[in-house]
Write a structure and sequence with these properties.
By secondary structure, the chain is an alpha/beta fold. The protein is 35% helix and 22% strand. Helix 5 links the parallel strand 6 and strand 7.
């Protein structure tokens, strides 16, 4: 595709400001493997964007660069708040592929962890934790332990922990991949509701064409390693989506379009 994504003047594109900007970004590991880039991408405030591509194409690497968990080899990564100020990782929440919960403590204390690290006063942190658990539907499970939770509930705790600092940007790295289909559908619906209500900028990594179409305003299709942008597809569907959209002809058409755009990224890979 080359260059920052061009957005039409409707939907999320009308929201002022760019939340995330990657320009000429590459990542080369010490082994000499080029994992990513050059990659150019812009994500606007309040937008829901999915990164879609084959395993090893650099989707997760891109998230880690945006979060500041790793440094790019070249290029620039810019993070801006809604007021236009350049920010660091403090305005970012990250939901990993695994919940990574502390098994020896309660749901409440797992969610509180980022606030403890930030040395927030207990009274204020308690209100934040309660609000975050309410957002994900787990306020009645604050005193439960991870071993008592289902896989979907554990992922909800992980999401609450990412939300508890009230970040402007939420990065999600295949958070629902290990869940059964029904649980995954339910969490997809709940995530869309959270996005509409909290007005977060979400960048979501997935291998699933169906999930990317259901969730996203815009899908960025990436090439095989080193990951670059090969296609951009806008999903012009209402933000309030449900089973009517999932079973519609429009949804099927978008899935077909995205699958066709993704196919070249798998060409020549083992098993293709």
């Amino acid at each position: 595709m080359g260059g920052p994504a061009a957005l039409s003047e409707k939907g999320s594109s009308a929201r002022a400001g760019v939340a995330v900007s990657l320009r000429g970004v590459t990542k080369v590991y010490d082994s000499g493997v080029t994992a990513l880039g050059p990659l150019d991408l812009e994500v606007r405030n309040g937008e829901f964007v999915s990164l879609l591509g084959p395993s090893g194409c650099g989707k997760s690497t891109a998230l880690r660069l945006i979060a500041g968990l790793s440094a790019s080899t070249s290029g620039t990564v810019g993070i801006s708040s809604r007021d236009g100020q350049v920010r660091t990782g403090h305005s970012i929440g990250f939901v990993f592929q695994e919940p990574t919960l502390m098994p020896w403590t309660s749901v409440r204390e797992n969610v509180r962890l980022p606030l403890k690290l930030a040395k927030m006063p207990p009274a204020e942190s308690e209100a934040r934790v309660h609000q975050a658990l309410t957002h994900v539907g787990l306020s009645d499970f604050a005193d439960a332990y991870p071993r008592e939770l289902s896989g979907g509930m554990k992922m909800r705790v992980s999401l609450a922990r990412a939300l508890v600092t009230d970040p402007e940007i939420l990065l999600m790295d295949e958070p629902f991949a290990a869940l059964d289909e029904i649980t995954r559908f339910r969490l997809n619906n709940d995530l869309l509701s959270l996005w509409r209500n909290l007005h977060k900028t979400i960048i979501f990594v997935t291998h699933s064409v169906f999930e990317s179409v259901y969730l996203s305003e815009r899908i960025i299709v990436m090439t095989s390693r080193p990951g670059r942008l090969s296609a951009e597809i806008r999903i012009d569907a209402p933000a309030a989506r449900g089973e009517d959209f999932r079973t519609s002809a429009a949804y099927a058409d978008y899935c077909r379009k995205v699958s066709n755009a993704l196919a070249p990224s798998y060409a020549g890979q083992p098993g293709s």
